[in-house]
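Subgroup meeting minutes
Present: P.N., E.W., G.H.
Scribe: E.W.

1. P.N. recapped why we're keeping a running log of single-chain structure predictions: easier to compare across weeks, and new members can see raw inputs and outputs side by side.
2. G.H. added today's entry (148 aa).
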Amino acid sequence: MYKRILVAIDGSVPSNGALREAIGLAKDQAAQLRIVHVIEDPYAYYADVGVPPETVAALEQAWRQAGQKILDQAANLARQEDIQAEAGLLEQENRVSTVILDDATGWQADLIVLGTHGRHGLQHLFLGSVAEGVVRTAVVPVLLVHRP
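Output recorded in log:
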């Protein structure tokens, strides 16, 4: 039985499926639910190619606002199912998978739920996989939800 379920979302169709699954599990298991969204660091992408710092800062603020909106919508969905979820907007300091795992460890999650895009071949090779990174190093069970 799970008592502390963490779900990481990014606003995509697969992550929305993971959110619905996590809400259902939290309701079924009478578990606490934590919903997290990781804001990627725009400086890592744009500062080295000469984009002005004020532009990068504006981009970071826009990403933060978009992430908060994703979290607010997810928390509202949980409330509609009578689940009071806590939400966390996380800053990327390492790989996204590491940020998720660090938060799950700190919060003492006993299950991590993630959506997966199910990419294969070159697309997976070039884009990487947050889900794969979490699965490879998690010390608690990970539930992957694939929703096309």
